[in-house]
Amino acid sequence: MDLHLTGKTAVVTGGSRGIGLAIARGLADEGARVVCAARTAVPAPKNSGIIALEVDLSTPEGPQQLADYALEQLGGIDVLVNNVGGGTIPDQPFPKIDDELWYDALKVTFLSTVRTTRATLPSLLARRGSIIHIGSVAAHTPDTGHMPYSAAKSAARNFTAALAKQYAGQGLRVNTIAPGVVNTGLWTSPDGAGDKLAKDLGIPLAEIIKEMPKLAGIPTGRVTEQGEVAALALLLASDRVPNVTGAEFIVDGAMTSART
Fold first, then answer.
1. Which of 133, 121, 135, 23 is nearest to 64 (CA)?
2. Which position among 69, 103, 149, 167 bears the catalytic label?
3. Which residues are 33's β-sheet partners?
4. What does the pLDDT look like over 110-159, one tens digit per residue?
5. What is the pLDDT of residue 11?
6. Neighbouring residues of 240: CB distance < 8 A, sequence distance ≥ 6
7. What is residue 230's three-state secondary structure?
């Protein structure tokens, strides 16, 4: 299927690795020109269609710097992928989670999305574009170990839905993809969430990765691959689904459904 993305322009935040990088590469492979923003940018291969920008989107000025740079490089913005997120994950009970940890999660996961959307909105509206927010099933399944992160993802989910409703009549499409456990460095690299879980359980990291579907309760028996999330993002970025807006697509192998 031709997604009609040749010649389109896109901005992908958190695009130096994982899901963000997979989406940026997918867009470029389809013929789009992409500005890929991250706090630590990785130089893009020559003639790849990707332009890397190092910018801290957790700061008030970072998103506007990104928008200005993208408009200078691309001339306009057809697609925005809000993928950046994170913050410190406190491994402690609620009373010990101070304001700084709450604000860290909010500014990285929520305020970066709000500010980047606001900065790029005029061009997206002018081009009747598409915004894709990469959320998380954490917005549906709050966890005591990730309380600030889950709350920030819930806020971003609500914001995205409201934005879709407000601008639906102006041709701007806004959707959310909420992945569950995805095969990224978050789970496979040392000092990541998978490594922490392995240490808590007293088993090797390799065993955690192998047993993750069982540990996470994923009925399909496997974790999601980055390319699966990217494939859905590319479809939502295209003009093939013009009446799909305000939707949330959960990609977790029925993990969330199994808990309800």
1. 121
2. 149
3. 9
4. 999 999 999 999 999 999 999 999 999 888 887 776 788 889 999 999 99
5. 98
6. 1, 3, 4
7. helix
Residue 8 has, within 13 A of its CA and on its CB side, a CA count of: 26
With H, G, I as helix, E, B as strand and everything else as coil, classify residue 181.
Answer: coil
Q: Is 149 a catalytic residue?
A: yes
Phi and psi at 50, nearest 5°, equal -110, 135
C-alpha distances in angstroms, 24 versus 50, 114, 133, 173, 206? 7, 20, 14, 19, 28
Q: Provide DSSP, 32-47.
A: -EEEEEESS--PPPTT
pLDDT tens across 21-46, in order? 999 999 999 999 999 999 887 777 67
Report the distance separating Cα 147 and Cα 47, nearest Å: 42
DSSP class of 111: I
From 202, 199, 198, 219, select the one nearest 210 (Cα to Cα). Answer: 198
Kindly report the number of other CB atoms within 10 A of residue 43's CB atom.
Answer: 11
> Max alpha carbon distance in the chain (Å)?
54
Distance CA 205, CA 153 (A): 27
Cβ-based neighbours of 116, under 8 Å, separated by 6 or more? 11, 13, 57, 63, 66, 67, 80, 82, 84
- The amino acid occupying position 250 is I
Give me the amino acid identity at 90. Answer: P
Overall average pLDDT of the 160-179 stretch: 97
Query: Is 250's pLDDT higher than 90?
Result: yes
Predicted confidence at residue 199, as pLDDT, reads: 84
The confidence score (pLDDT) of residue 147 equals 87
